[in-house]
Design brief:
637 residues; alpha+beta; 5-stranded antiparallel beta sheet; 27% helix; 25% strand
Length: 637
């Protein structure tokens, strides 16, 4: 009992688990070692695991969390005891290319491992045999294998995703011979997409294993129902051959696949050539209700897999019907009289003191062009006000977002304007800001409609200088778009299949997004849930990994974890412990540490604003204009 009482002051996870025999393990795992704020706030580097001689491209925890597997450019897979910081096994694989994925096959006592690599091959090893020879080999892929995936409920299957645009299904119960051309192709994107589609990542829903998500070298995350897809044989293509869609593929048009995409991108017809976006990682939430995606050259997006919400650009609320006022009609004297000079009701809403303080701090930051802090203060104020009677907070945040103007900020401002108008349909300023944001987003006709509706609903603002200036800007942009449309008409008329166009047109919009990291130099950068659904973690091109508060999207902390790039951030399945890796040859473990160690910490980044601003500047710039070690990019891609 004395030993148990001591743990009230112990914050080192490793020490607690080393002595776990002395007290109730269930108590530790269930109640003490979750991601409570006092634990997450005290995370620091615990140790470095040294052994690899190349970039460590992937990490994987065993089912019980007792073993950590790492794989590298050196073709080795290493198994570690994370609690004693010891190497358990060093497997030299037959791979001839960088290993990008390693997976424990479920319900096999941590003995079977699958690997996928840049040599287009996948292997399965039985490490219990103490033999480096694979027990299964597949060379069906024609391009680099980027990710493997397993289902927690199926010990016989695993899947491989590769840059040939295919997802293959591997069944350990069946003998496999690549020369026999077995029917093992579950998904082949070349059936529906023009060009050279690549699958970059894959995930299986832990509670609904029939749901498979894949990320590709475009802006869409696709979620398939495996039960509705039949396996086919590999089709032979020339390397890097552009393909023509095949209407007779094995995927039904309706019901079997659902697309997800940030709304501001789904409306775009193209991007700058140096800002092509690709999804580098996908994962489901532990409860299977959410999908998290790390979008290269962009941000991290969270989707509700049950949502059907399409992007909304212009959806004005009806004006309430009152005596003398016609809903959605021209404003009567009564409704006009309700508006003050700034387009708000004359009766100013009074917030509670804590919300009012956050609003004032947000306003002060906005005036100083400290947009990140302004947005965070408005967000916290909205959360404290429970989203009620706070239209002005949404509009202020929309203003800060438009001025900051990072990727997706204008669209986020459009969403905030809609929320403000839903809370207060008479909010003229929100109406005007929506029209301005739509123009900046490139939705010119929507912007024109929105402005015309503003003048119809509130005639007294028709001659407002801001309204007149916006009207001129819309006319100028319409002419620019007409010229661009003429240029596009002279380009190739090749189109994706009708199925693909249908799926993309119904892409579901995001629920939340997490901003601050940089993801441009590698296509294996992860993003994961940490502690059920309490936090989000991801690596970054600046050598740091980020921790976001899941509920409000605000950065909780940043840690320096690599000299160049952090690609992998893998939370332990049960306790407050993180494993990270990247370009450095070491695997690093992070856990809550003592106050004494925290005082001497050199890993925690103190200037969060500066780090985030630098990342966003780098992400929106042409990579050929910025310094980046060529070796790091080539080795980690």
């Amino acid at each position: 009992m004395k030993r148990k009482q001591q743990y009230g002051s112990v914050t080192n996870v490793t020490q607690m688990l080393t002595d776990r025999a002395y007290w109730d393990v269930e108590y530790v795992l269930r109640n003490r070692l979750r991601t409570a704020p006092q634990f997450v706030d005290n995370i620091e580097l615990e140790t470095e695991l040294k052994g690899h001689n190349g970039c460590v491209n992937c990490l994987e925890w065993s089912e019980n969390g007792c073993i950590l597997a790492s794989a590298s450019d050196d073709f080795h897979v290493m198994l570690w005891d994370p609690f004693r910081h010891k190497q358990l096994y060093d497997l030299l694989t037959p791979h001839e290319g960088n290993i990008f994925s390693v997976k424990f096959l479920p319900k096999r006592g941590n003995s079977l491992l699958a690997t996928g690599a840049g040599d287009c091959k996948t292997f399965v090893f039985d490490v219990s045999r103490q033999n480096d020879s694979p027990i299964r080999k597949c060379t069906c892929h024609m391009q680099r294998v980027k990710r493997l995936e397993t289902s927690p409920t199926d010990m016989q299957l695993y899947w491989s995703a590769a840059e040939d645009g295919m997802v293959l299904q591997h069944d350990l119960r069946q003998q496999h011979g690549c020369d026999r051309q077995d029917a093992n192709v579950l998904i082949d994107l070349k059936n529906n997409i023009i060009g050279i589609p690549e699958v970059k990542c894959i995930a299986i829903n832990p509670l609904r294993p029939e749901m498979m998500a894949i990320g590709t070298n475009d802006i869409y995350t696709r979620v398939y129902d495996r039960r509705m897809i039949s396996l086919t044989r590999v089709k032979q293509y020339e390397v890097n051959q552009e393909t023509v869609p095949n209407s007779e593929d094995n995927i039904p048009r309706d019901g079997c696949v659902k697309y997800f995409c940030p709304g501001y991108l789904s409306s775009k017809e193209g991007y700058n050539q140096y800002n092509q976006k690709a999804t580098t990682y996908v994962t489901f939430s532990p409860d299977g209700t959410e999908l998290l995606t790390n979008l290269g050259s962009d941000h991290i997006y969270l989707y509700d897999i049950n949502s059907t919400q399409l992007p909304v650009f212009l959806q004005l609320p009806k004006l309430p019907t009152t005596n003398g006022t016609v809903a959605n009609g021209g404003s009567s004297d009564e409704s006009s009289a309700k508006l003050g000079a700034n387009g708000r009701e004359k009766t100013k809403h009074k917030f509670p003191p804590d919300v009012e303080l956050l609003k004032k701090e947000g306003n002060a930051c906005l005036e100083k062009n400290q947009f990140l802090n302004a947005i965070q203060n408005y967000t916290l104020a909205i959360k404290k006000a429970n989203g009620k009677d706070c239209a002005i907070l949404y509009l202020n945040r929309a203003t800060a977002l438009m001025k900051r103007n990072w990727y997706g900020d204008v669209y986020a401002a459009i969403r905030d304007c809609h929320t403000a108008l839903a809370l207060d349909p008479y909010y003229v300023k929100a109406h005007f800001r929506l029209a301005r944001a739509l123009l900046k987003q490139g939705n010119v006709l929507d912007s024109m409609t929105c402005l015309e509706e503003l003048m119809r609903r509130f005639p007294s603002y028709a001659k407002n200088p801001g309204v007149l200036m916006l009207d001129k800007d819309i006319v100028i942009e319409i002419e620019k778009q007409r010229v661009r449309a003429a240029d596009r008409s002279q380009m190739s008329n090749e189109v994706d299949s009708e199925k693909e166009k249908y799926w993309r047109s119904n892409a579901v919009d995001y629920e939340d997004r997490f901003v601050g990291h940089c993801n441009t130099k590698t296509d294996i950068k992860e993003a994961n849930y940490f502690g059920d659904k309490h936090y989000i973690v991801a690596g970054s091109d600046d050598g740091n990994f980020f921790v976001w508060n899941r509920k409000n999207g605000i950065i909780s902390s940043i840690y320096h974890a690599d000299e160049l790039i952090v690609n992998c951030v893998q939370p332990h399945p049960y306790i407050c412990l993180l494993a990270t890796s990247g370009i450095d040859h070491e695997v690093r473990l992070w856990s809550p540490q003592s106050p004494e160690k925290l005082l001497s910490s050199v890993r925690r980044v103190k200037q969060i604003d500066a780090a985030v601003q630098e990342n966003q500047t780098r992400m929106q710039s042409d990579p050929f204009d910025s310094f980046a070690p060529d070796q790091a990019i080539c080795r980690a891609s």
